Amino acid sequence: MSEDPLAALVSRSVGGSVTDVVAEDLPHDGLTERKRLRFVRDGSASTAIFERSAPGTAVEAQLVPFLARKTDHVPRVYSRGLPPPHASLGPWLLVEDVIDRPSGCDDPLALVRAKLAIERAVQGDVPALRALGVPQVTPGELVARVAPRFSADGAIVDAALAAERLLSWPVALVHGDLRCSRVRLAERGAVLTGWRSAHLGCALLDIARLAADLRAHGRSPDAATALYMDESGGPQDAEWLLDAETVDALLREARASSN
Questions:
Q1: pLDDT digit string (tens) for 176-190?
Q2: Among 39, 150, 152, 206, whose CB has the most other CB atoms within 10 angstroms?
Q3: Between 3.90.1200.10, 3.40.50.1820, 3.30.1830.10, 3.90.79.10, what CATH number should domain 104-258 receive?
Q4: What's this model's pTM, rounded to 2 decimal places?
């Protein structure tokens, strides 16, 4: 009998004696295929998450293993695959299963501390991040990308002006979509998932996205945003956060209109 390739992958990746591998499909967002792999390892039930991105979108598969070596605030990585760019299969990761852990909304301060810890862990690694394919994107470039989706609108002008001011914010690793659903609370603290939109740029945009999501969940973002402003190393003036929220509001509107 031929070896089950899925069981073989899990066995090689997590180690130990692995049997009874079963794949459970998780919601597909159009860009990332996800499966929960249930298996028995050394006599105990366990799980892992298999994620496969669309062909040509390798940033997450490149970045997350790098981050996992620097910090424990991302999922532990068991293995990854990086097909050549012309391959029909996309890059994949086999990672720790944190999907059912409590949402980051339950402890916004822990979430922000984890984000700060990740930024600090890689602040001296800009050349390495670029080599991994993490792009550098200014707030103005983000606004320019979505501007064609809108007719003449004062919101675009306001966002463009805010983005220009944000150029002075220190460059850091930006998650790109920091919402409660992207963060899970494990015993070791907050764990940030979903890094496919990561780039180098203005990380204050992450906090603006988080603040909007906390409000949508009926929670005040004030303590979380204050913590980030105090400890990020950026300017303390509240106008900076208002500029980030102006840019993020346009980006969120563009995203909503495309769904």
A1: 999 999 999 999 999
A2: 206
A3: 3.90.1200.10
A4: 0.93
